[in-house]
Amino acid sequence: MPVHDWTRVDAGIFHAFHHDWVTEISRALNRGLLPPSYYALPEQIAGGLGPDVLGLRLSGPGAEPPTQGDAEGAPDGGVALAVEPPKTRFRIRSEANRYAAKAKAVVIRHVSGHQVVAMVEIVSPGNKNNQNGLNSFIRKAHETLAAGVHLLLLDLFPPGPRDPQGIHPLVWGDDGGFTFQEDKPLTFAAYMGGADAQAFVETFAVGNPLPKMPLILTPEVYVWVPLEPTYDLAWEGMPAYWRGVLSAFQ
Q1: E strand or H helix at 242, and its extent?
Q2: Rounded CA gap, 220 and 205, in Å?
Q3: Nearest residue to 212 via CA among 196, 223, 198, 197
């Protein structure tokens, strides 16, 4: 199926598709595409991915309680924002940012210690609609790769004033031999994390088929991610009205 122009709908519609696509990718990987010692889960990643937060938090007997500074509780001397928000004249929230914060990624873990070894991250409108959102997204990508976690980035949105050549040069830090093509403004990029950094980049346009992309598991091993069939399954689950809106611009 050709890629649709997701700029034609608001962030909430893309968020619904994003959610389903992440789920379909996870299911496909778990149905025999990953080696037996790996598994995929749709997980929400809030904040950075430093080495100290990469372990799977297990629940049940023996699980450690949250410590100071954990997301579950407020640090000493602080006030929980959800319990007692500051009383100011204006409290402004970006709808696109809010959906970006709720977005999930496909997280690949290894059964030996349930540590994260790779991620598939789908770029949301809120990741690029303001400088703070973009800086946060790029910082998270850098932390992920620095921690030795491999990353597949899927960006279905065209470049804007903050990423004039797309997301890849910002993640990579320089052009690295990459040449931006205006007729192929969308970017998929697979990155090898750790010291032996490498990038595998494909560019394409609305109306093109989705390019084939690898998901790196170790510096020696990768699997192909079935992006086209999983995109199709997520698309079929969208409301007919919105499929009609998007199909009208193909």
Answers
A1: helix 240-247
A2: 30
A3: 223
List of residues 6+ apart from 54 with CB closer than 8 A? 115, 116, 147, 149
H runs (alpha helix) in 81-158: 95-102, 131-146
Are residues 151 and 119 in contact, defined by beta-carbon separation less than 8 angstroms?
A: yes
- Whether the pLDDT of residue 129 is over 90: the answer is no
- Residue length of the chain: 250
Q: Which two tokens stand for residue 156?
A: 């279905």
**Measured distance CA(213)–CA(22) in Å, rounded:** 15
Range 6-54+92-247 has CATH code 3.90.1570: yes
- SS3 state at 46: coil
Domain ranges of the chain: 6-54+92-247
CA 167 – CA 195 distance, rounded (Å): 21
> What gap in Å lies between CA 228 and CA 1, rounded to an integer?
7
Confidence at residue 113, expressed as pLDDT on a 0 to 100 scale? 87
Q: Are 16 and 238 in contact (CB under 8 A)?
A: yes
DSSP string, 51-98: GGG-S----STTPPPPPTT-TTSPPTT---TTTS----S-----HHHH
Kindly tell me the number of DSSP H helices and DSSP E strands found in the chain: 6, 8
For residue 20 the two structure tokens come to 């389903």
Q: pLDDT class for 58, splitting at 50, 70, 90?
A: very low
